[in-house]
Design brief:
The chain is α+β, with helices and mostly antiparallel strands. The chain has three domains: 3-46, no CATH class; 48-129, Carboxypeptidase-like, regulatory domain (Immunoglobulin-like, Sandwich); 139-396, Sandwich (Immunoglobulin-like), CATH 2.60.40. Helix content is 20%, strand content 32%. It is built from seven helices and 25 strands. The strands form six sheets. It has a nine-stranded mixed β-sheet, with helices on one face. Strands 1, 2, 5 and 8 form a four-stranded mixed β-sheet that branches. Strands 4-3-6-7 form a four-stranded antiparallel β-sheet, with no helix packed on it. A hairpin with a 5-residue loop joins strand 16 and strand 17 (214-217). Helix 5 packs antiparallel against helix 6 and helix 5 (357-369) packs parallel to helix 7. The longest helix has 24 residues, at 428-451.
Length: 457
């Protein structure tokens, strides 16, 4: 039998088994069907590519065997597209039914998830995981920021934390009170989020502890930086004293409030006033290198709202009464380092200027439009640590509220823009142009929402 006779196609009018018998008897297949068969074969290969990878345990510097590996399709809204386990060498293979779309690889190691993006065209990935311990040495707070504003008889605030895990060998810390903090007495949580380095903000509800006003995030502190944000509201009579009750030492504890409000440090508490040219309507008070239990109490009075932060074109903030704004013009002193030395707050500038901008804007719309008689408790949701941020059920605006609906759409669009930017699907220039347009629209929506009447509960 000639090899060419077996490499043809199906004989017209015959079923597959009859065609195969015909080919084996040496009957020639119709001309042109070999081209069709080759095309179908190539199409099948391109539509079912495989993705290979390895899972490495950085704590032990060895392959991570037996870990669950999950393939998530981002083009299908985080749908699971495959699942396997890493072998003895940490290797795994997954079938890509849609090789043209972006994917996310999720590895579950000792109950904690780790992720790695797989943009279109990726054929191999490496995922790093860490052993888990209930308590690790090397957890520190690099920035603890409180943003406050007051309108009428209500004080609105956001507390932000930047937590760094520098454990050696690197390990992930995870326990039932993994990161604890206090809110002011009488504060009620509106929304809370967490973000891992390189990830997206996700909903993560803090759990109230036995002690009044004390909460805990049950969220893994992976090696590197983890960010937490809690927005809250509380009754306000025009003046209030706040004791942050720090449970961790921090490189910088920051209080930010409108210039129309007054700040008074507690007795014996050392704060330094700062001015930032990018947000001229705000006052920033900073206490550096704080320790556990150190008094950081302060009082605020008056009313006012924080505006949107500007760009970075005018340099870094400087102490009130100090030298001309700009890093190169500072002779040193206070938080300002010597000439040409890096600004210690530069790395955490976004915390001081607003943290998760989209969430803060959502909180502003919600707080401004929320009925005074509504009760807002701890959100009744628990999110996985990779889902997109969404407004929790407890604070979701009504469909009839046009401004809230617009805000929701803007939140989703900004989130998708960030995902596409991280995946490399758009250029930096396209990203900046789109981001600027969305920010401007978002600002207008926030202003309109602030003027909108309170919805009926």
């Amino acid at each position: 039998m000639k090899l060419s006779n077996f490499a043809g196609g199906l004989t017209p009018g015959l079923n597959p088994s009859a065609s195969l018998r015909a080919g084996l008897r040496g009957r020639p297949f119709p001309r042109g069907t070999s081209v069709l068969l080759a095309f179908l074969l190539l199409a099948g290969i391109s539509s079912a590519q495989t993705l290979t990878g390895t899972v490495t345990n950085v704590t032990t510097s060895k392959p991570a065997a037996g870990d669950d590996v999950v393939l998530l399709s981002l083009s299908q809204g985080m749908q699971e597209a495959g699942r396997t386990q890493s072998d003895a060498k940490g290797g795994f293979t997954l079938k890509l039914d849609d090789a043209s779309g972006p994917h996310l690889i999720r590895v579950i190691h000792q109950g904690v998830t780790y992720h790695r993006m797989a943009p279109p065209g990726t054929t191999s990935v490496e995922v790093q995981v860490y052993d888990v311990a209930k308590k690790v040495v090397g957890i520190s707070v690099t920035a603890d920021v409180m943003r406050l504003q007051a309108q009428g008889n209500e004080l609105q605030g956001v507390r932000l934390f930047a937590v760094n895990n520098t454990s050696s060998p690197p390990r992930t810390q995870m326990n039932d009170q993994n990161f604890e903090f206090y809110l002011p007495d009488g504060a009620q949580v509106d929304q809370s989020m967490a973000e891992t380095a390189g990830g997206q903000p996700i909903n993560s509800a803090p759990v109230p502890q036995k002690e009044k006003s004390r909460y805990a995030f049950i969220f893994p502190l992976r090696p590197g930086e983890t960010q937490f944000q809690v927005s809250f509201h509380m009754p306000y009579s025009g003046q209030v004293s706040i004791n942050p009750r720090a449970l961790y030492g921090a490189q910088h504890f920051v209080v930010m409030l409108p210039k129309t409000m007054q700040f008074t440090a507690g007795q014996g508490v050392a704060f330094q006033a700062m001015q930032d040219p990018r947000q001229s309507d705000a006052v920033v008070q900073v206490a550096s290198n704080t320790t556990v239990g150190q008094p950081l109490d302060f009082s605020i009075s008056g009313t006012g709202a924080l505006g949107e932060a500007g760009d970075d074109s005018q340099g870094s903030p400087t102490p009130v009464g100090g030298a001309t704004v700009g890093r190169d013009s500072r002779p040193g002193g206070g938080l300002g380092p010597p000439i040409d030395a890096p600004d210690p707050l530069e790395k955490y500038r976004w915390y001081i200027l607003g943290g998760f901008a989209v969430v803060l804007a959502a909180g502003a719309i919600y707080i401004a439009g929320r009925s005074k008689t509504a009760t807002a408790g701890v959100p009744d949701f628990v999110a996985s640590d990779i889902e997109a941020p969404e407004t929790p059920r407890a604070v979701r605006p009504k469909a009839s509220d046009h401004s809230a609906m617009l805000l929701e759409a803007l939140k989703e669009e900004i989130f998708q823009l960030e995902v596409e930017h991280k995946q490399g699907r758009i250029s930096q220039q396209e990203y900046e142009k789109a981001k600027a347009a969305l920010d401007q629209t978002l600002e207008r929506a926030v202003k309109r929402g602030g003027r909108a009447p309170s919805p009926v509960s």
